[in-house]
Design brief:
The structure is a homodimer. Chain A is α+β, with helices and mostly antiparallel strands. The first copy, chain A, contains six helices and three strands.
Chain lengths: 112, 112
């Protein structure tokens, strides 16, 4: 098999497959610029553990980190999530009832 | 740290993080009931390799398999993808311009 390089969307889905990383993304959504220790605190995670998760999110292009003095602040980058959502939207037909289906259903019901 | 059991959404995102598995889901979308060998053929994958990918998809609740004689046919189950999409939709605000923002932009432009 050919050597496999993870594509952007592979890395996005892979980064999202962990509850700690999803928690980080959810917190950054409402509180942009949180520091690494602020992100780690409510999860009772040690800093090295949090740094590993942030590396995965950063490799997937889902966050940026910037350092001011001794504080690293983290910001969300939502673009890759858009692509992941678009991939999933192809399946919307499976859980959405179309207007035509609904009309057919109502007409059938009227015939009773 | 508490022992970690992968939740459904963890397994969904993890299953989607591989191009072979996404290819399987895309093919099943248009051709429900394809056999394991029909799924493996265009990818030049041997059956055991394909079976491993199908196990991951099945554990994530994204496919069902049924056996008729010697043929295993595979069907898509889209439900878990709906939950994954809903998770991602929380971030829509980051790539969608709201009507208010648009109106403010137009008004500002008019003032020039």
């Amino acid at each position: 098999m050919a050597k496999y390089h993870a594509s952007t969307i592979d890395r996005t889905f892979s980064a999202l497959a962990d509850p700690t990383r999803r928690n980080v993304l959810l917190r950054l959504k409402d509180e942009p610029g949180l520091s690494v220790s602020e992100l780690a605190r409510p999860l009772s995670l040690k800093l090295p553990g949090m740094m590993k998760h942030l590396d995965v999110l950063s490799d997937a292009g889902l966050i940026t980190r910037s350092k001011t003095g001794r504080t690293v602040s983290v910001k969300l980058v939502a673009g890759p999530m858009r692509d992941a959502m678009k991939w999933l939207q192809r399946y919307e037909q499976f859980w959405t009832v179309s207007i035509d289906q609904l009309a057919a259903f109502v007409e059938k019901d009227d015939e009773k």
